[in-house]
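Dear Dr. H.,

I hope your travels went smoothly. While you were away I took the liberty of generating a structure for the chain from your last submission, since the lab meeting agenda had it listed for discussion. I wanted you to have the full record in hand beforehand rather than looking at slides cold. The sequence, exactly as received, is reproduced here:
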Amino acid sequence: MVRVMEALAEQGVTVLFKADAERMRDGVRPWTFVANGLPFHEDLLVRTDAASVEACLEICLPRLRERGLVIPE
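The corresponding predicted structure, in token form, is as follows:
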């Protein structure tokens, strides 16, 4: 995961992962992934809330690749 975040940052993307304690207690998608920046497209914003870090990546990485970002496997 660190390689992915570093690769995105090197391309001008700011990445944030968040674990929300309240949502974790409630069992409601406690992880948030947000990526934004202007490397290839104006107003790049990719965001999701999911049950795990892995689920966030499964949802967001394809979206980022569709926008032309290079992300290691």
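Two observations you may find useful: Helices lie at 2-10, 21-26, 53-66. The mean pLDDT is 91.

With kind regards,
E. W.
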